[in-house]
Amino acid sequence: MLFDDSHRDTLYNIIFQRRDVRRDFLPTPIPDDIILRLLTAAHHAPSVGFMQPWDFIVIKDPSTRRKIKEGFLIANEVSADKFQGDRKSLYRTLKLEGIEEAPLGICITCDRSRTGDVVLGKTIKPEMDLYSAVCAVQNLWLAARAENLGMGWVSILDDDVLYNTLNIPRDLNIIGYFCIGYVEQFQNTPDLQQFGWQDRRPLKDAIHFETWNTK
Amino acid sequence: MLFDDSHRDTLYNIIFQRRDVRRDFLPTPIPDDIILRLLTAAHHAPSVGFMQPWDFIVIKDPSTRRKIKEGFLIANEVSADKFQGDRKSLYRTLKLEGIEEAPLGICITCDRSRTGDVVLGKTIKPEMDLYSAVCAVQNLWLAARAENLGMGWVSILDDDVLYNTLNIPRDLNIIGYFCIGYVEQFQNTPDLQQFGWQDRRPLKDAIHFETWNTK
């Protein structure tokens, strides 16, 4: 089928209004049919050799989320200490996760051995399986935004916390843990831009024509 | 803003009808304003610490695409030899790239040192910058589909071919090379499923509740 201008504009709106959400979560439960829609969207990501290496662990239990939050607190102390002076002070003011406030957590893993040792499209670039699983993350993120759900990637967390808490086999790779929930509001600009941590790079600086550094 | 059911369904349609396109490309040029819209969508991907580590090299020159195609042919010979018997025969029948037929190529890189040595959110999980750049890939892919453009990821290609042909500094990482163009048609099912290489995994097999392997 062909999409028209209004479909295209809808996608661009969803892309532009997606945020990495770590605050303003509401406790409102997310209906199971909506969670299933999110995961169906993630499952339709592209994957190298069609290996679909991802799995999704759906976490609602507050005691599980409490353990993951404890893991974040430890990792965040270590992380804050890597910054100096004003940056360190600013870092400590930022809200960087919503593990306990958001009623839903999803952990995405990658099974690098799925479909066997030799995978079409992965013969030259072995990281393609991990990258496929990340494409599923972005589908999930856009689906969440279209469902008016905030989602945030909690990357300040040792993988060991997730392996242990969620009983994940060690031969899988952990892609990420994501907090998802309804929110009071979506911010117009990313928090890190809003609070003076990092500006948006001008797009023109990122575009090159024909070869590197040809503008 | 809040999205409604029709917006949500539009996103899901785009996600479900996106394909990894390697054939049926038309030579029709893609207007520059459309290319800019694609890259704007990619540039609005999430990124760890808002580091926006990606760059986009836009390639139209047929002689450049010819060189990249030569790189694919070498890599594909090596790759075919990794399969045995019927799989090897089937592999050789598959069309796995559209480098020369598609009028547009985009190479996406990742600058892992952008914004400095210590990056918020990357202190514990260093691969987050690469994963951010892959989120940009998926935004690009969905934007292309919404613009009725086919896009394929050419992963059977040594990174050296791209470093050399596109004059990319060696301290950057190459995420991928993508073929983009209008197409005669979009396939309803992925080629690898259609031609009996790999089936779609049932979604229910990928979903776990609360901990690994709890269905």
TrEMBL record, chains A, B:
Tell me the superkingdom of the source: Bacteria
Sorted keywords for this record are: Flavoprotein, FMN, Oxidoreductase
| EC numbers for this chain | 1.13.11.79
Q: Which Pfam families match?
A: Nitroreductase
Domain Nitroreductase: from-to ranges: 15-182
Q: Name one GO molecular function term.
A: 5,6-dimethylbenzimidazole synthase activity
Q: What class of enzyme is it?
A: oxidoreductase
The residues forming a coiled coil are none
Name the InterPro entries on file. BluB, Nitroreductase, Nitroreductase-like, Nitroreductase/BluB
Keyword match Flavoprotein: yes
Q: What is this protein called?
A: 5,6-dimethylbenzimidazole synthase
Q: What is the lineage of its organism?
A: Bacteria, Pseudomonadati, Pseudomonadota, Gammaproteobacteria, Oceanospirillales
